[in-house]
Fold this sequence. Notes:
alpha/beta; five-stranded antiparallel sheet
Amino acid sequence: MNDEPVRPHPVLALAQAISRNEPAAVATVVEVSGASPAKVGAQIVLQSDGTITGTVGGGRLEAAILADAREALAARHSLLKHYALKEQGEDAVGTLCGGELTVFIQSYTPAPKVVIVGGGHIGRPLQTMAEAAGFETVVVDVEAGRGAVPGLQQIELTTDTYVVLITTDHVSDEAAMRQVIDSPIPYIGMIGSRAKCQIVLDHLRADGYAEDALARVYAPIGLDLGGPTPGEIAVAILAEIIAVRRGGSGQKRSL
């Protein structure tokens, strides 16, 4: 009797990862010439926790493909890659089979998330624009003057989550910031005057929060586009989020 666990098909493993909103990469052999341990259609799935499902021939070839899959996951991109089953030469993987193959590595990553704390007249256009730009959006209602924002507790905060604090009072903004500042999010934007923002940041410094954590706070929020209307402010906020996410400068591109 075979006691080995039944392993899911690579496509099923990928579907399960996507359903759990977890990053994964699938490598599919799309072309083979000459001798190769992997045939056209062979697939392997790499999940963010390191779980591997399927095979593309094993050995050094599979190790090389998995290394490229890890890179694709980290960079959130897909690529078409050529491998030569030789010891030396261009694209060589260090084997003696002599064949060549092409593999398509596709990265699946959850949509980036914008969490809008406070909503209101700026939050509504920001939600619409962020969704149009490919972000998942979550609006958290706030009860003014409370020392906590309960709605934040149920939200998963990841390295691709961007939090916007646009409540009607500084107490709520500070309470929300204290709830998210220790998470791995790369961006916390807070609306308000420079004086108000400085007071909130000084409170956190006084309580021992490190400067590297506070460096993720963008306050006052948004790029300086000059627009005073709620819709224009929302554009400035989203532009800043995209610049942080993509590493952009926010400067003019024209010469």
